[in-house]
């Protein structure tokens, strides 16, 4: 989770919403790590989880990530929760809960339906204070600069 | 929807699950069209909708597709439903309903939660017989060839 937090911090420095994700294989090796790249790519689906999952699968040379864990600093949104299931991640470990946009413990709760064909084990709230603080600081700075620009 | 069906047929010829998608702008121009490329890309998120949405946004040079419609031959899964919301598509028109894996009228019903920040207008069941027949034929051939291989 420390590496995921570092990816989130790096994303914030690039002006992206600070979320970071890391895929680790069964032996504990990091397969891929990514931060949010929505602004850089002009793609609202370029979330940290999607980029890390895709890169990890490419590195393994297969379509699936069975046996792997995904660490991400924020509760995945519905898009990322669905991707986690499609890539067949074994265990999802996330930081801060996201009541506004989360899709695991909130909103559509993507893993909780009989039509979800692959469910990871889920552990939420790991290092959540650090992850939430990064987000709080980022949006507080955004508001401050928007207020200054409005003067 | 005819063009989306043609994309689905082309996907089947490449050995992909036959689903096709087309993004059309407010003036009726086709911005992007795509078929499933899960096998070709080794990426379980390379669904027709995702590829078409991303290509359409790149063509428009922006992050969002407000004012646009997405035509897709099959009810979008939760991943694609979430992406449709994130790209801010105005109207989703889909063909066959998908009780097993759909995410719009089935399963997590992604657009039906207060945490869904952008909801398209949804029209389902358009040309559904043609879309469903393509899928039925594809999976029936798959089963036949699996049975032959097992002999």
Written account of the structure:
2 copies of one chain form a homodimer. With 151 residues, the first copy, chain A, is α/β, with parallel strands linked by helices. Chain A has a single domain (1-144), classed as Cytidine Deaminase, domain 2 (3-Layer(aba) Sandwich), CATH 3.40.140. Chain A has 5 helices and 5 strands. Chain A has helices at residues 2-13, 38-41, 48-60, 78-86, 128-150, and strands at residues 20-24, 30-35, 69-74, 91-96, 121-123. The first copy, chain A, has a 5-stranded mixed sheet. In chain A, a hairpin with a 5-residue loop joins strand 1 and strand 2 (30-35). In chain A, helix 1 (2-13) packs parallel to helix 5. Chain A is globular, with a radius of gyration of 15 Å. Chain A starts with a helix and ends with a helix. The relative contact order of chain A is 0.16. The mean pLDDT of chain A is 95. The A-B interface holds A 38-39, 42-45, 50, 53-54, 57-58, 61-64, 77-79, 81-83, 86-87, 99-103, 106-110, 112-117 and B 38-39, 42-45, 50, 53-54, 57-58, 61-64, 77-79, 81-83, 86-87, 99-103, 106-110, 112-117.
Secondary-structure map with pairings?
Two copies of one chain form a homodimer.
Chain A: H1 2-13, E1 20-24, E2 30-35, H2 38-41, H3 48-60, E3 69-74, H4 78-86, E4 91-96, E5 121-123, H5 128-150
Parallel strand pairs in A: 3-4, 4-5
Antiparallel strand pairs in A: 1-2, 1-3
């Amino acid at each position: 989770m420390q590496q995921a937090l570092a990816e989130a911090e790096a994303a914030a420095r690039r002006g992206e919403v600070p979320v970071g994700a890391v895929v680790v294989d069964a032996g504990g090796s990091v397969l891929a790590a990514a931060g949010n790249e929505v602004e850089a790519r002009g793609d609202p689906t370029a979330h940290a989880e999607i980029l890390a999952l895709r890169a990890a699968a490419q590195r393994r040379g297969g379509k699936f990530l069975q046996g792997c864990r995904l660490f991400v600093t924020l509760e995945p949104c519905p898009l990322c929760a669905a991707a986690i299931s499609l890539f067949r991640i074994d265990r999802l470990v996330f930081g801060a809960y996201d009541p506004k946009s989360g899709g695991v413990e909130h909103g559509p709760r993507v893993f909780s339906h009989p039509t979800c064909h692959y469910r990871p084990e889920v552990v939420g709230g790991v290092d959540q204070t650090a992850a939430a603080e990064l987000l709080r600081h980022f949006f507080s700075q955004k508001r401050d600069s928007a207020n200054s620009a409005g003067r």
